[in-house]
Amino acid sequence: MNAPQSIPSSVFTGTNLKGIDFSNRLSVAPMTRISASASGIPGERMARYYERFARGGFSLITTEGIYTDKAYSQTYRDQPGLTDQEQAEAWRKIVDTVHAAGGRIFAQLMHGGALAQGNPHRSETVGASAVRPKGSQLTGYHGDGPYALPREISEAEIAEAIEGFANAARLAIEVSGFDGIEIHGANGYLLDQFFTDFSNRRADRWGGDIVRRFGLSLAVLKAVRAAIGPDMPLGLRLSQGKVNDFRHKWVEGEPGAARVFEALAESPADFVHVTEFEAWRPAFEGGDTSLVALARRHAPRLFLIANGSLHDLARAEEVMEAGADMIALGRGALVNPDWPQLTAKRTALRPFELPFLAPISDIKDSELAL
Fold first, then answer.
1. C-alpha torsion angle, residues 345, 307, 174, 224 (rounded to 10)
2. Is 3 within the bounds of a domain?
3. What are the residues whose beta carbons fall under 8 Å from the beta carbon of 369, sequence distance 6 or more?
4. What is the DSSP letter of 344?
5. What does the alpha-carbon distance between residue 85 and residue 172 come to, in Å, rounded to a whole number?
6. In whole angstroms, what is the distance from residue 156 CA to residue 63 CA?
7. Average pLDDT of each block of 10 consecutive residues along the chain (370 residues)?
8. Which residues, including other chains, have CB under 8 Å from residue 297's CB and lie 6 or more apart?
9. Given this model, what pLDDT does residue 1 score?
10. CA atoms within 13 A on the CB side of 350
11. Residue 245 carries which DSSP code?
């Protein structure tokens, strides 16, 4: 159940998104945990993992990235999917468990594109263009060595990928019973590969300036909205940094960010989820405005979720003052699934240590005991 308000703080005030009431402004950020079966079916361990956050007082949980088709979307070995009835019915058990514990849960849908490093459905990868991703595969997710050189995804395959998002969203709402949908447009995955200047060298309608590169994300939002209807919450996650390139910045700077948020405000999205390493810092060198503040300025109608090292209450409140409607915690929530309750009571938080996720970033028995 949600935490009592033992200390006055903006994070413990209620809010509403598309008819869903939240008793506080605290949510759990999506985190890849690769704990499904080999066929992408979530199980009991995942249900217990998500339930802890609802019992600990978080009013909203966003799932880890869920793959959307049995072609090129799966990114990691043992990643959960939402591509068929069996997977969707398994997610229903998790959703019911979270609801019974007093929480709400959104499904995050993603396509790995060129960052795929554990896809059993295809031996090759596809990306916006035939550009090898920076960095190396993630060892914590069974990766080894450099990323594969992707093949440029074709127009027909783009259409299939869009339909994969729409079909997964339909299953998420109609079968699994999720409360909303978040499209993963961040962190270097397929939609972000189209959005990023150096990975998108296309000369067709999907390439060009920052708004044209943003076009695939907008097309996915449009298709998903048609699939789930007008009443379900729908949003997009955006970032500058990527899992394979932490320091990346949008080359168009603040003017480009303004155009992106303005385009998103005109889309079918209800919310935007922005993530930075430290969400309160200026988004661009030489500027003084955070990505959160830019999103609020240029997309005022959108519900705004902010993520990025906000496990300190003062930092969370600072980012809310900059315009965020809700705070999403990642690392802090992993080791403190009861963060809302602990913080409301001024109880010390458990420190996060990297070995917590070693050697593989799957769900551990030690977590479930917290």
1. 160
2. no
3. none
4. H
5. 10
6. 29
7. 60 97 98 98 98 98 98 98 98 98 98 98 98 97 97 98 98 98 98 98 98 98 98 98 96 98 98 98 97 98 98 97 98 96 94 86 93
8. 258, 261, 289, 323
9. 46
10. 17
11. B
Dihedral pair phi/psi, residue 218, rounded to 5°? -65, -35
Question: And the tokens for 312?
Answer: 């300190």
Give the domain extent around 144.
10-368
Active site residue 189: yes
CATH code for the domain of 231: 3.20.20.70
String of b and e for 214-225 (b: at least 16 CB within 10 Å)? Answer: bbbbbbbbebbb
CA distance 168 to 348: 40
Listed residue (311, 310, 307, 309) closest to 350, CA to CA:
311
Residue 1 within any structural domain of the chain: no
Q: What is the number of other CB atoms lying within 10 angstroms of the CB of residue 329?
A: 24
Q: Is residue 213 part of a domain?
A: yes
pTM value? 0.97
d(CA 313, CA 332): 11
Burial class (CB in 10 A: 0-12, 13-18, 19+), 2: buried
What letters, b where the CB count within 10 A reaches 16 and e where it falls short, cover 166-191?
Answer: bbbbbbbbebbbbbbbbbbbbbbbbb
Rg (CA), the chain: 19
Q: Could you give the number of structural domains in the chain?
A: 1
Is 305 a domain residue? yes
> Out of 67, 76, 147, 189, which one is annotated catalytic?
189
